Amino acid sequence: MTVSLPLLFVERMKQLLKGDFDRFIASYDEPRLYGLRVNPLKITAGQWKELSPIGHSTKSVPWAPEGFYYNGEDRPARHPHYHAGLYYIQEPSAMAPVELLDVQPGHRVLDLCAAPGGKSTQIAGKLQGKGVLVTNDNARERTKPLAKNIELAGVRNAVVLNEEPASLVTVFRGWFDRILVDAPCSGEGMFRKDEAMVQSWESHSVERCSVMQHHILRHAAELLAPGGKLVYSTCTFAPEENERQIAKFLADRPDFEVVPVDPNYGWTEGRPDWADETEPGYEAGEWQRNVAETQGTVRLWPYLIHGEGHYAAVLRKKPGEAAPENRDAVAETAQAAWDIRGHIITENPDHRDARFEPAPDQRGGKKRRDDRGGRLNASVPRGGAKGKGAFKRLSTKEEGAAPEQLWERFASEQLLFQRQQEMQIYLFGSLVYLQPLGMPSLDGLKVVRSGWLIGGVDNGKFTPSQALAMGLTQREASVSLNWPAEDPQVFRYLRGETLFVEPDELITADSSVQKDKFKGYVLICADGYPLGWGVYAAGMVKNKLPAGWRRM
Ligand SMILES: C[S@@+](CC[C@H](N)C(=O)[O-])C[C@H]1O[C@@H](n2cnc3c(N)ncnc32)[C@H](O)[C@@H]1O
Prior knowledge:
The protein is of the alpha+beta class.
């Protein structure tokens, strides 16, 4: 066997699986599987298969319409399409929980344990830019890749938080239509994929994880609206973290029920018989009733499917009393803020900020901070159109102009911006966000991203962000450059190099732009999909791709 498994784990699985144990253990000698999920915010699965050099050699993941198996030697994470956010690398069985969550465009969705964001980007694809995704993780360092993956995927309607579930209850009680609890777990399903999980199995003991999961679920229940659905998932086989956890939850929360899942695709039903010993503190008959419900949950086994292993339970909060917070009132309050303050919501000093990965300021090499310690991860606008149709240079500085005016001017002059839903401008220090309308105040929470970070204002200048570039389509930029994904210019751009181009290569959405005189922002694209910003002048493109986004 290539993986050396913990003895205790092997003994326990032998007892549980009995006749199936040999097949289970033999699956550890099979090669690991590789999966990616196409990002429907940017491209359809069919279009991607046509476009990608590896599209023809992939096979569909049966339970995920955008999921594909690929050959390990293909290394899609190194291809420019990855840097354009066309797909996310994800283990195939990890694609199942979001498929079970039944997310519809317009829903309010919480991904409570979200980093590094695989399932959050999948949820965002289901929302199609409509509704709200609140994506949260309590580990601060893990929210950096989380925010980056949300931005890379071009998600416009997400808020990224760094909170304990209990803290979310004060702001979001009963607010969400859908909640995913992809719980921290002992990771037994990851042993074949990642040998480090074998080492950390002891420290992430099953008992320790099951206590954490119990607390997380308890608070998640408070956050869900009546009639809403919650999917609980783990990538482990231990019944204490799966059926037993769900039985305990049902006993504590009689207002919840299991929505049985059809065990298709080689998935199997939950195993109530592995959790039927009555938990101390619970009445035996009641325990048995709740345990029986867990038959409607599902297990994904590596010896029965092409995937590493997962567990998922779909839970519904029974429709009952209205959520404590009136949904219409929230929308009306937000609409009032939009109308009265010209669509502006400004920062509240109580709002705690945990944002921003370090990024070099690209003007003169100095690090620039917003007034609360955040750093602007973006570049500086120098040119643009004046009014619709004309394309003259913007004055580089407008002393006294409000950030929202500078943004709106940038948008009207440099973008042909398609709103997918009403958004409100949210200002935090020098940073400008677009936030889905109807969000409650985030005051008192640790906020990593208050919405779609579109840029920043410093010294009278609006600077578009990398997140803005990634959330646009090529057609939404007034001026762009585009090469086939395998063109050397694309690789130069991704390495952070300056590019030299002919004025004729500029692609303009506005016929009045004089290419030989143009100076200003261009959206750099590969195969028509944005990679980031450049600033063009006289045949030279200054590279504005932030350091953390470059391909090494
Ligand atoms: C299995 S991972 C999530 C993977 C993620 N859903 C994805 O698909 O990329 C579990 C996550 O839970 C987070 N976590 C652990 N305890 C937590 C808590 N009390 N509240 C919120 N998140 C927590 C961990 O930091 C970890 O990132």
